[in-house]
Amino acid sequence: MNSRIALVAAATLIAASHAPAQTSLPYQKPPAAIEQLLESAPTPQVQLSPDHKTMLIEQPAAFPTIADVAQPRYRLAGIRFNPLANGPSVERYDVSLKLQSIDAAAPKTIAGLPAKLKAVDAIWAPDSKHAAFVAHATAPASGLDLWVIDVATSSTHRVGAIKLNAVLGTPCVWMPDSASLLCKTVSATRGAPPKVNDVPTGPDIEESLGKVSPAPTYEDMLKTTTDEAIFEYYASADLTVVSLNGATRTLPAKGLIDHATPSPDGHYALVSIVHRPFSYTFPYERFPQITEIVPLKTGSVKVLLDRPAVDNLPISRDAVEAGPRDYQWRADAPATIAWVEAANHGLPMPKDAQVADTIYTLAAPFDSKPAILYEAPMRLARNGGFGGARGIEWGNEHLALVSMSRFSDRKQLTVAIDPSSPGKAVTIFSGSSQDRYHQPGSPVTELNAGGHPVLKLTEDGQGAYFISPGASPKGDLPFIAIMPLTGGQASREKILFRSADPYYDDPIALLSDNKVLIRRESQTESPNYFAAAFDGSAPVQLTHFPGRYDGIKMPTRQFLKYQRADGVDLTATLWLPNGYDRSQGPLPTLMEAYPAEFTSRVTASQVSGSPNRYPVFGGGSHVYMVQDGYAILDTATIPIIGEDGKEANDTYVEQLLAGAKAAIDEGVKLGVVDPNRVAVMGHSYGAFMTANLLAHSNMFRAGIAESGAYNRSLTPFGFQNEERTYWQDPKLYYEMSPFSYADKIKTPILLFHGEADDNTGTYPIQSERFYAALKGQGATVRLVFLPLEPHAYGALETKQHVLWEIDRWLNTYVKPTTAPTAATGR
What we know:
Blueprint lengths: L31 H7 L6 E4 L5 E7 L5 H4 L4 E3 L2 E4 L4 E2 L5 E8 L6 E2 L9 E6 L5 E7 L7 E7 L4 E4 L13 E3 L5 E6 L39 H11 L1 E7 L4 E15 L5 E7 L14 E7 L6 E6 L16 E6 L6 E7 L14 E7 L7 E6 L2 E2 L11 E5 L2 E8 L4 E7 L7 E8 L9 E2 L1 E3 L5 E3 L7 E6 L10 E6 L9 E5 L4 E10 L2 E8 L5 E6 L6 E2 L14 E8 L5 E8 L10 E7 L2 E3 L2 H4 L26 E6 L2 E3 L10 H18 L3 E11 L1 H12 L5 E5 L23 H7 L12 E6 L9 H13 L4 E6 L9 H18 L13
Parallel strand pairs: 40-42, 40-44, 41-43, 44-45, 45-46, 46-47
Antiparallel strand pairs: 1-2, 2-6, 3-4, 4-5, 6-7, 8-9, 9-10, 10-11, 12-13, 13-14, 14-15, 15-16, 16-17, 17-18, 19-20, 20-21, 21-22, 23-25, 24-25, 25-26, 26-27, 28-31, 29-30, 31-32, 32-33, 34-35, 35-36, 36-37, 38-39, 39-42
Helix pairs in contact: 5-6
């Protein structure tokens, strides 16, 4: 698969011919009306400074080109990196940066920026006087450079001559003094890269000697000793303190540095380092790893844990590795480490368990006995990196919020604990993780003097600020509120500001105790940033970004609510061409969906999204087809519900068909959908859905499936949210696999797959084998492999070509009033 260099078409370009063919053709472009939407510039984004006085305005690039995607890369240990840059192989970057004071009417340009800016990982200093970003060096140089913006002078400069190493993630964080950064850097003494020898020196061998090691079907794993050497060479880094004047100081920590974070007092760094022996089955995050405390000035390194490879987890969302995990700094203390340890050796806990996870702390100089801070009845949420924990949000010596959940029954719990009185906890929220209507949202944090996020509390300390999506039967109405920390039945949040029709106002950050920065948009107004006071006065506009689609004839949109035959409430967004009137008759239609599992009908029926959002057509969107005369049933909800002790997938096909039929029936009822001219499409699990709908119904004229998995025996250790293995229920795996029913699929189906798919379970071979099965049964099928593309397609040329293919497929098999001969024979 890695050697593919051309689009592979698995049917002739001329639909009238049924002879199988393999063709190669250059990238094509969709019709101009679609192309115009695709290439519009994204709306700028804003980062507010910690002191709430300055906005850093970032202009993202639209899409990388295929030439960008084709840059050198290695696919090893579960990641993809560019050896020339020592960073990710492809990433979204900013092409413009500006500064704007909250009190100013317009932004300032920043002097000294690189002429061809490719900026990533912009971060504010704790004191708000500077912001740092990483810039891709331009030819003839290569690599990643550190740049710093001076807010007072609105200027920037490159810091020193170091090269950063971002192979294992974001390379730099600010030190608490705001005068330096802690960075992963390419060693100045690094030698030549390993040589790749095409002549083998012996076989590559894997073995398992009786140890139970179930593994999902990961992509991009190490396969040879040469792979090991290359991964170790490029991912290894020095840990360096870099001052704003360019001076550097190398710390006694080097190697495969995964994370490194300074303590709030700036005296230590918490560092995790991956090491050998490497695995050929799991990504690098599950390799052996040392966690240690490194002094930033003087002293010796203290090893907290040398964790072995995590290679024996059962296939369960409630299972975690045994032993300590998720080390982090306690954000509100000078230098105190916190971590979590699982009960029951990390195995799933019974629902009546008293303790599933225990939080420990240990203060500097880290030589005393750890203290138990809290014993949690469920698993704590995972960190996502030092300093970015969602499981624990630190407040002060008397407050921290702990969030936990249990996947098996979708329970969720948030409690307030007093770190000075271990064991004491007050329940702030308890409910279902799937119940969007009652979610409290996320607590608001702000950087303290040490550069770590702590809870934003009310002046009396009795409440914490929360921002919520505000899900409701009317759609999402985001709000910011104060959540009482006293708990109890009567404890309810006090809403300070809430979005209201016709706007979608998304709270971003507090500007003061009585004002919030919001991102405002509506169906007709492109997003901009406003300052909204809590007294109900009109928000004040701060930015004046132009409309993303100004000058384009836009389609119309309608939010639909309807019911499945069994009474479950469903929703979809209906898009209609500009100028369309229902008197013109029903339209050919494209329906897109992505099934989701639920444990109750109540939560499955809840409304998601908002009719007040400004329409944004992402690179992978199918809604572009509305510009060529199609009605679009967008994001039609198709819940798969498991109740009364039954698993959701026990009746997957039946619920799938019922949900699809309900969406079509609603469009027909409105007089806009022609039931005889409907196509269905989906990406990933939505592609799996598409193939199943074609296998088990004749509702559709055509199908379009992107990067799916069609044979579940190739994902034997579970898939999506299914935790049963193939050997526990082979019948389920057979019946849910559209591959099993390839002989039943006579509806024309267009298959796409990124030839470098990096998603768990959706190996490109899934589409190859599914195509072969369909072809062997005489189906009308076209398979398009997309060179260099991962699971989510990135390059502009790829996106253009995918839209061209979809447009041709729909115009051939769906738009005609009479179905083409090739599409009949159901």
